[in-house]
């Protein structure tokens, strides 16, 4: 992919304008426009970072510095699904590493690697804010899969291979019984 | 300490289906506090609102526990500069998973609280910064903001009062340091999340150099309760000097982990054994990290009679933090646990200032050595030495947060660490 | 007046002051890395820690509160403070490493951290000898290392741009380079990439650090992370002499230091002058060192036949010059001064031909419109345009030079490549006897019949008037065949100069150019033709000028040295292409 071929569509440019309108400076839109770019290309490799910089009329070095600071931006191409397995604190003590190692065994790759078919990338990540539902993982910066077991992981992989992503799971407080009941109906 | 907690009905996240929808929220007295203020501007002048909140002593729920109203009063008199309220929904302290419940189940309570804060401080724009991993909650919350705009609670000429307040939601992209208030400001400005030196404080020079106040999501969700029921009522909930409802996030080796809402000052043992259903597999309790990963771990024997409020936890040798309680059972390997904590801080140090950038990595590497059975007793003292070299020497508190668990875990579980070193390949008699 | 107490001494201060700058201004020391007086204060290296507090004043009486021993009570700040970002306030008490063990400990601790991932490769590092990290480690650092685990590895030998090389492992993340590109040169070409201990400065992936001021980052880098690609591995700093001088590559007159070893200029760095260039200079000015060493005119030369020049003796050069002058009337001479040479050279040169009866020498400014920026690069390509005006040389445009040549039989050019810069063509000079007094080989010397080698700015003391009308001067930095460091007290003498002999392999006589200051040559020439003309030193020329030229009244080399140059009361003239 050469830099010339990269461009935002009119719809994306409109979205970028809406993002810019939230802030008094273009610079403030950097993180959000990197997200727009990552959604489009699946990564923010250097040429995509430059597209973001040029679109926002910012120094390319600035966008490069920002992209490299935040871990959710993929600076390299990844598999179709990125499985971010939390192994931090609560997940560590509740079997996060077992889940990670199980995934590694199942997919035949190590954390940080991508399967040969380009389907899965596994990453070991820091706390994702789902400590009460440990162990857990996040699929490609999106949905959370909570309270994992090896069986649940196998099912998840199977579904993902079929293109079926898990659905958002509402974790209702145990004190909210009425809500729970409503949700289960 | 709170004793009659069993009859407590949640206030921040009450058991009302579909409360996240604005009609339902309004049906249950939603936006009443805000309307009351707008309808009675004399009784509820900006100063009076601030004073009421100050009197209620809402301790910041983001970890520092600072009186929210007092924080508001640091804002300078309005001048020609724009004024901002930056709401911290970064929630990335390991063990903490509470604010996402507010976004999901009662977003309007928070929006209303933020509006009242904005009114009290003459704020023009509210930014809500949510961690990037919470993208699903961002989408849920954005819908609530849209509803509030449609109903005229946000935007220009709010409810016909001539007051203009905008609320913009935005999100990060993976960096714990953006939960530090000035790191978050830098991130909001589209930069690397390097915390700023203070002074100047955000109230003087915050977002784009303008007066800015930063509050946690849960903190602001408490504000409408105070306006509706008064500071005295609020003071009556919870412990002395630490009041109001608290979202306790309980995780680790308990039977019923999750977020629970109870008054501040809950007995730790009640929370673990009663609320959270006790230790999994009927094991013994070994230790508790009471308020997120940076709060010092307490041994089971240090927990007797301790309650979840700042005074009691301070006396016990720890801190309230975010009330994200991580319960650890008898089988927990404290060396492994501490190594993983230092791994976290090493990964998340922004790298701006020396003691943290270098110290967090060194801590992790030495602990890895010990964990791998290659440690020596002198490494433990080196680690303790490093913690004093890091603490209080950096721009923000990340170095402190990295140092405390190391110091306290080693000191409180010294035997376990020494044991591991004695078995090491380098062990000397 | 508000007062502060530093290491138990009382000082008064006025206005806004940060503690570190105040302490440095007192001539005291606190170690630091990231702080730079001309840039924003990030307080990120955490090296300049001091213990600080406040004497407690009774609010009602305004008196200091005393303890039981009659000593003033102090409220110490709970944490150690970075003095760079600590604003002085009335009654503040500061203890540096000299009086506080805590401050000393904090500084030592920070140094230990800075060194753990640093490669400690001083023996092969260019920065060694002038490295703040090395110096401060010796002064304030720990004695050994307790770091027994693996260091972080980062990119090394990265060609960041055409002139700057990065070793990211040596970097201590002070961000001076990034701030320079943001705040001073404003090219924004640098950023810190990655996070935590993997941080290092970098350009955007598709970009190169070709900032026209890029080498300033090498100067301010407090470690050997950024080094000059050209100067790398050429010399140890302690082997070199450092001589103050003036940048002669443009009209700004940046204050510089010439770094010489064995009479070769090896590098040029900026010298602080808040009135002219602050701490900075353009990269172009640094590249000038080559012209002081290479392509020099050494020994006079004379054209024997059509195209062949041959070296000749000084006697023969003087004789030939004299014969030409004797064979022509003054009005047959076209005499050209130059903005590329100093005031003294132009003055002596012009005076010589005035004495012969010629009218004032002409000169044409050397301007490239649009070449400059709003900072230190100017449209004016010469260092002394205003100096030529000051001594009333006749300013003319290129056409004026051409017509003067056309109507002359003899053309005498002082140090100006009029052919190379397109004012004249070699053909214009073909039918005239052309004499060049020059420092370097050029198209003009090639087209000349007689070439007299003269000293360059690195070899003489002389003054230059910059575009803003400031007169500043140079010092001799390298010896010629006829000067001697040990006899000329204005010259600095390094270890290698002092102890080197012709038998040492680091001494090379070839580096000494066979040339004379223009006035000395004219002394010889004057003597030969019986002209009353004698200047022993440029100082004598300057003294005469300061007597005769109003704006120079009361100005001397000493004043220029003390005041880092003197602003002349001359009207600032827009230097334009005539």
From TrEMBL, chain A:
Molecular functions (GO terms): 2 iron, 2 sulfur cluster binding; active transmembrane transporter activity; inorganic cation transmembrane transporter activity; metal ion binding; monoatomic cation transmembrane transporter activity; NADH dehydrogenase activity
Binding, [2Fe-2S] cluster:
86, 91, 127, 131
Task: Please list which residues make up the signal peptide.
Answer: none
Q: How is the cofactor bound?
A: Binds 1 [2Fe-2S] cluster.
Mind telling me which SUPFAM superfamilies this protein's record contains?
Answer: Thioredoxin-like
Which cofactors does this gene product need?
A: [2Fe-2S] cluster
Listed GO biological process terms? inorganic cation transmembrane transport
* One cellular-component annotation, GO: membrane protein complex
What NCBIfam families does UniProt report for this protein, alphabetically? nuoE_fam
- What family does the entry list? Belongs to the complex I 24 kDa subunit family.
Q: What is this protein called?
A: NADH dehydrogenase subunit E
Q: What is the organism field in this record? A: Fodinibius roseus
Q: According to the entry, what is the taxonomic lineage of the organism?
A: Bacteria, Pseudomonadati, Balneolota, Balneolia, Balneolales
UniProtKB/TrEMBL annotation, chain B:
Q: Which SMART domains does this UniProt record tie to the protein?
A: NADH_4Fe-4S
For this UniProt record, the keywords arranged alphabetically read as follows: 4Fe-4S, Flavoprotein, FMN, Iron, Iron-sulfur, Metal-binding, NAD, Quinone, Translocase
Top-tier EC class = translocase
Respond yes or no to whether keyword Amino-acid biosynthesis is given for this record.
no
| GO MF annotations, alphabetized | 4 iron, 4 sulfur cluster binding; FMN binding; metal ion binding; NAD binding; NADH dehydrogenase (ubiquinone) activity; NADH dehydrogenase activity; quinone binding
Tell me which cofactor or cofactors this protein depends on.
FMN; [4Fe-4S] cluster
Q: Which family does it belong to?
A: Belongs to the complex I 51 kDa subunit family.
- What name does this protein carry? NADH-quinone oxidoreductase subunit F
From TrEMBL, chain C:
Q: Which Pfam families match?
A: Fer4_NDSU1 (PF22151), Fer4_Nqo3 (PF22117), NADH-G_4Fe-4S_3 (PF10588)
Keywords from UniProt, A to Z, are: 4Fe-4S, Iron, Iron-sulfur, Metal-binding, NAD, Translocase
GO cellular component term, pick one: membrane
Record-level Gene Ontology MF annotations: 2 iron, 2 sulfur cluster binding; 4 iron, 4 sulfur cluster binding; metal ion binding; NADH dehydrogenase (ubiquinone) activity; NADH dehydrogenase activity
Cofactors needed by this protein, per the record, are: [4Fe-4S] cluster; [2Fe-2S] cluster
Q: Where is the 4Fe-4S Mo/W bis-MGD-type domain?
A: 240-296
Q: Which GO terms describe its biological process?
A: ATP synthesis coupled electron transport
Stretches assigned to the 4Fe-4S His(Cys)3-ligated-type domain: 102-141
- Cited PANTHER family: NADH-UBIQUINONE OXIDOREDUCTASE 75 KDA SUBUNIT, MITOCHONDRIAL, RESPIRATORY NITRATE REDUCTASE
Family membership, please give it. Belongs to the complex I 75 kDa subunit family.
**Protein name, per record:** NADH-quinone oxidoreductase subunit G
